[in-house]
Design a protein that fits this description.
The complex is a heterodimer of chains A (203) and B (86). With 203 residues, chain A is mainly alpha-helical. Chain A is built from eight helices and no strands. Chain B is built from two helices and no strands. The chains are: A mainly alpha (203), B mainly alpha (86). Chains A and B meet through helix 4 of A and loops of B.
């Protein structure tokens, strides 16, 4: 089961609201490579994962992604505090505002609401781990793109932290893939899904 | 207090304490000045902590404490696995 800690993983202290930035960064909540999808991906994939050590990695990364939803939410909240009607109109935040006011809603910057169609839980060790490696790179690119568009250091600082975590998660998943391949190499057999085809060496 | 219980029975005891704690937590969120609820919460939270300490000393970690003698955190079984997985 899960328990809540009443703190952010890394501080978010934005002095100057900027609804334009918020309308871009919201993608890292509910976009195709956002933190909602990341946490759901790992926390669902881990159930069928037959190797306990990799289940642990998926669990611990998936839980960290929940904390990242909270951090990006804090960024959105602080960027949209005390907006005037002019700011909302002029900054391109009006389309989001009309549907959600300044509530945090899981949507892509393009306006497409969060969809699980942008993630996969395939129930296959190699397919899922490759999905995870790709997901971390796609999220890293999204943070890179945000950093190209944002020049407030108060915003860039937590974004850089989140970007660095994508790189670390990629490393851990690469090691997880190595662990899985070592297990499968024991029988030199890849025409086989250890998450489904039960075997004495699966665990 | 729970000495000698099987893993399954001790875990069930923890779940009972944990549920009482969490249900009281929800109640306290909307009734923060209830002394009765606060006492109930503290009583079962402490019982939960004692049961978890007992469980962890015999069957492995439920949560990490910073006093690990070796890294067994990712060792199975995971909570959704039962006897059929062995």
């Amino acid at each position: 089961m899960f328990q809540y800690e009443k703190k952010l993983q890394y501080p978010v202290n934005i002095k100057t609201p900027n609804p334009k930035y918020a309308s871009i960064i919201i993608s890292q909540i509910g976009g195709p490579d956002g933190e909602v999808g990341a946490s759901l991906r790992y926390l669902t994939q881990r159930i069928a994962m037959p190797y306990a050590q990799i289940t642990g990695i998926l669990t611990d990364v998936g839980v960290e992604e929940l904390s990242h939803i909270e951090m990006v939410s804090a960024i959105i909240y602080q960027l949209t505090r005390g907006l005037s009607q002019e700011q909302i109109r002029e900054c391109g935040f009006d389309a989001y505002f009309v549907d959600h006011t300044t509530g945090v809603y899981p949507t892509a910057a393009s306006g497409f609401p969060y969809t699980a169609a942008s993630m996969q839980s395939k129930g296959d060790v190699l397919a899922d781990l490759h999905e995870d490696l790709a997901a971390e790179q796609k999220a890293r690119v999204t943070y890179d793109n945000i950093l190209r568009l944002v020049d407030d250091p108060d915003v860039c600082d937590p974004i850089k932290f989140l970007r660095a975590r994508e790189v670390v998660h990629y490393q851990r998943f690469a090691e997880a893939l190595g662990i899985a391949q070592d297990k499968m190499n024991e029988k030199n057999f890849y025409g086989y899904n250890p998450a489904f085809d039960k075997s004495p060496f699966a665990r | 207090m729970n000495n000698g219980l099987s893993r399954e029975k001790l875990l069930r005891q923890i779940q009972i304490y944990s549920f009482a704690v969490y249900d009281a937590l929800l109640y306290l969120d909307s009734h923060p000045s209830s002394k009765e609820a606060l006492d109930f919460y503290n009583k079962y939270k402490q019982a939960e902590s004692r049961a978890i300490a007992e469980y962890e000393s015999r069957f492995g970690k439920i949560r990490l404490s910073g006093q690990e003698s070796s890294w067994q955190w990712t060792d199975g079984p995971w909570p959704w696995q039962n006897e059929e997985d062995k």
